[in-house]
Design goal:
Number of helices: 10
Order of helices and strands: EEEEEEEEEHEHHHHHHHHH
Largest sheet: 6 strands, antiparallel
Strand content: 15-25%
Structural class: alpha+beta
Helix content: 40-55%
CATH topology of the largest domain: Jelly Rolls
Radius of gyration: 19 Å
Shape: globular
CATH superfamily of the largest domain: Regulatory protein AraC
Number of domains: 2
CATH architecture of the largest domain: Sandwich
Distance between the termini: 49 Å
Length: 269
């Protein structure tokens, strides 16, 4: 079968589910901060607000307009951070012949890209419509839409890797040092850039300044610990670099929109 992906023959795409999550209440859907291993490939497309996503040991912040790929067989954890939030999710399988498509294309770890918003939102909206109103050409409609999403993701993934390559060591350093209070100077030295230029290029690559990115990684780690339920809040604070639990609570509420106690209560209930 000819496909919309150049160089790919015998492409088989199966859509398992299409969802739209919309949350505006503090006790609404907050994802899965405990994590699980994905049994299918997944696309997330954020239409409102922000959330954290971690695939294996790599974490990122998803913002409105971001498209994320979550690969099959990898540990994934995610949670929304803003009070108002909207996310499309497509759960699918894609193969070329008898091989998984994304490993065949050299994309094994997932990642985030920023596509054209009008085009991408339309693709997800119509996919949800097709899922809820299945017709005799459902398979053809879904093949067309998902092929277009995959092509857009693969094309932009190469560009994103190039833009983010200078900061790979910086992001890894952040992830390994959430218990510390690292400085902008430390991070800019890792990237071999002057601080002002470093902030500019980091923002271009990730959409937010580096210290804000680090704060959100800390917040995400705290969310995962709080969701488990058996770690004291003082210990959670210490694990992400706060000796003062009251200061940690203020920090957490600023970034998560609620106190650590309130956040934990969501998962206890």
């Amino acid at each position: 079968m000819k496909t919309l992906l150049p160089g790919i023959e015998n492409l088989t795409i199966t859509v398992h589910d299409v969802y739209l999550y919309v949350s505006s209440l503090a006790n609404a859907w907050r994802g899965d901060p405990k994590g699980h291993i994905g049994i299918n490939d997944v696309f997330f497309y954020v239409v409102k607000g922000e959330c954290f996503l971690k695939i294996e040991d790599k974490s990122c912040v998803l913002k409105e307009g971001d498209l994320a790929f979550l690969p099959k067989g990898k540990m994934r954890t995610y949670t929304r951070i803003s009070e108002e939030f909207g996310l499309y999710e497509i759960v699918f399988s894609a193969k070329t012949g008898d091989r998984q498509l994304f490993p065949f294309l050299g994309i094994c770890d997932g990642g985030v890209v920023r596509p054209s918003p009008d085009k991408m939102k339309n693709l997800f909206e119509t996919s949800l419509h097709y899922e809820h109103n299945k017709s005799g050409i459902y398979d053809l409609q879904m093949l067309s839409n998902l092929s277009a999403i995959i092509l857009e993701y693969v094309t932009l993934h190469v560009k994103a890797q190039s833009a983010q390559a200078p900061f790979s060591e910086v992001i890894e350093y952040m992830q390994k040092n959430t218990s510390k209070r690292i400085t902008l100077s430390e991070l800019s030295e890792l990237a071999f850039m002057q601080p002002t230029y470093f902030i500019k290029k980091f923002r271009e690559a990730y959409g937010i300044p580096p210290m804000e990115y680090f704060a959100r990684i800390k917040t995400y780690e705290a969310m995962g610990l709080l969701a488990v339920g058996n770690v004291k809040i003082d210990a959670v604070a210490e694990k992400i670099g706060f000796s003062d639990s009251a200061y940690f609570s203020r920090f957490f509420k600023k970034h998560a929109g609620m106190s650590p106690v309130e956040y934990r209560a969501i998962f206890k209930s």
